[in-house]
Design brief:
Elements: E1 3-8, E2 15-24, E3 28-33, E4 45-50, E5 57-64, E6 70-75, H1 79-85, E7 89-92, E8 95-100, H2 102-109, E9 124-128, E10 131-135, E11 145-151, E12 158-169, E13 178-185, H3 188-205
Antiparallel strand pairs: 1-2, 1-4, 2-3, 3-6, 4-5, 5-6, 7-9, 8-11, 9-10, 10-13, 11-12, 12-13
């Protein structure tokens, strides 16, 4: 059975649950977990990664068994509409990033430090509330997971996020290669700050 990772970032602390996909229909799925899903509540919006499936799914928790071992999820109907609500724009967003494993991504989202090499690309980048596209001299693979530390606006807060690499753009002429990533975990405060930045930029373009 394929491995599954479920991420909920709606509470004060992110909840990450690992399990196995036991049932998968067009609009819903059942995941069997070994534990740790007690914090998931019916109606919660979650991000779901399925082993060997490109991209992440946005889902809603339909039910959680009494013991917390079986979770039924349905696809979030508003996912595509949400993407259209937030256009991609350009702005200076200082970030640093690092390729990580699932365990390292969980640790990073939960506030733990992780070492290793962190890259700091040119901060002038394409962004939306759903993800980023930035120049990258570090080798990244499509489908890989990265940890991100980013600054938005006045720089008073360093936000932690994790994201999935959805596309790599090859270098062309003087332009280096770039990576497009979609957020897996983004704190509500960071999402609000990106939304505010989007509105500010749009107002200057009117």
């Amino acid at each position: 059975m394929p491995s599954v990772r479920i991420l909920s970032a709606q509470g004060e602390r992110p909840i990450m649950v690992s399990g196995e996909l036991v049932n998968h229909a067009e609009n819903h799925m059942t995941v069997h977990c070994g534990g740790g899903s007690e914090g998931l509540t019916v109606g919660s919006k979650v991000v779901v990664d399925i082993d060997n499936e490109s991209g992440s799914r946005r889902c809603v928790v339909n039910s959680v068994s009494g013991s917390g071992t079986d979770i039924v999820l349905s696809n979030e109907a508003t996912h595509q509409a949400d993407k259209r609500d937030y256009p991609r724009l350009f702005a200076g967003l200082p970030i640093r990033f690092r390729a990580v494993t699932d365990d390292e991504a969980s640790a990073w989202a939960e506030g733990e430090p992780i070492g290793g090499h962190w890259a700091e690309p040119d901060p002038y980048m394409n962004f939306s509330v759903g993800g980023l596209r930035f120049d990258s001299e570090d080798a990244l693979e499509e489908g890989s997971l990265i940890a991100i530390e980013l600054t938005i606006g006045d720089g008073s807060t360093l936000w932690r996020a994790t994201a999935r690499v959805v596309r790599i753009f090859a270098a062309s002429g003087d332009r280096p290669s770039s990576a497009a990533v979609s957020f897996d975990y983004l704190p509500p405060g960071a999402r609000e700050a990106l939304s505010d930045l989007t509105l500010q930029i749009q107002e200057t373009l009117l």
